[in-house]
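Fill-in record for Adenosylhomocysteinase.
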Amino acid sequence: MSSTTKPPSSKCDIARPELADQGLRRIRWADQDMPVLAQIRERFAREKPLTGLRMAACLHVTSETANLARTLQAGGADLMLIASNPLSTQDDVAASLVRDFGIAVAAIHGEDAQTYYKHVAMALDHRPHITMDDGADLVSAMIFIAIDRLDLLSTHQKPVREWAERFSPEQRKQLFNDIIGSMEETTTGVIRLRAMERDGVLKFPVIAVNDAETKHFFDNRYGTGQSTIDGIIRATNLLLAGRKVVVAGYGWCGKGVSLRARGLGAQVIVTEVSPIRALEAAMDGFAVMPMSEAARIGDLFITVTGNKHIIRREHFLVMKDGALVCNSGHFDVEIDLVALKEETVQFTPQVRPEVDEYRLKNGRRIYVIGSGRLVNLAAAEGHPASVMDMSFATQALATEYCVKNRGKLAPKVHDVPREIEEYVARTKLATMGIAIDEMTPDQKAYAASWQHGT
């Protein structure tokens, strides 16, 4: 264990401290399958690259994330961890992090929007030098405050506005001058951050960890692919073989979900707005059509786009009786639940754990899994530890890179350095007992030259 000193109660808000023993077992179980991160943690414990720095991380509070938190703490960081999704928090893990490792945690499974943003305000009050985001909520709040646009904060974000109002407009502009940088874990978050950069409001460098090849190739494709199907099956006990499964979006997450569903015998239909991705899906052997057509024939619908209202009123109205709908994109906006409720005459929550029934005016029933939130975390346990090993190793090393290059990185979205990518992949291969070839000197010279002809 890293620490037995509990953080101040003012920096913690957890639900079930009595579950710490169970949480510790889960953290240790995940740690066994995260050897790359473990190696980084050992080095961080020796070198302390994050000493003297305050960090605020808005992430899914799971057993895998706990091992990232331990790594950052081993590096010397004064870390505060809050939840990035109300349904992904594992209360037992949160309890163990506080009791066994002395890490400040503000995260409660099922927390409402007001509590969520109260925790965001607590993270801001930690006055971090470095942030880590899973969806850019933390950075967005910081930007609204820094540009003194508290009017842009929603009603749900009232706790953040109240925290910011403790300071004068001039002070608000100075609040985050000490920020060294931020790491972003999700596609949705990177999209938001690039929009901030485009609008000229991003005030510090951000490393797009999500865009690392060792992240989207593996975490998004294999992690999301497996854990999404896992969540659906846990919640419904549905046999996928022979079913028509509609996957909205054919990015890396959509590819992973489509492949896994096909592997279980489903007839997979892909919907897309990108002609290139649609063409790729078609050449990968999937049926491709607009959602207006797929809605009429699908049995199960899975959204993984990162955009809003992918499944809308007109789609609900033509769906089969008993159609199942779920989302594996970061935010709960991909399914237009407001429109669904407006078409509903009878709502029955929890017909199974994490499955709600909506009986429409036309008499048909639609089932929503996980309240429209990330189904792999709402109805299951998220990505396997083995794949998060690479993503969180990249997070930790990108944080170290940001610190080492303090003041040298422009206030924009940066890619993960190639040397970090290759270190993570090489180390992961080694932990799997896999060796690969190296180019000979002659091959290196040939690859770097232009003089050789046919």
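KEY FINDING: The chain has two domains: 9-214+383-431, 223-378.
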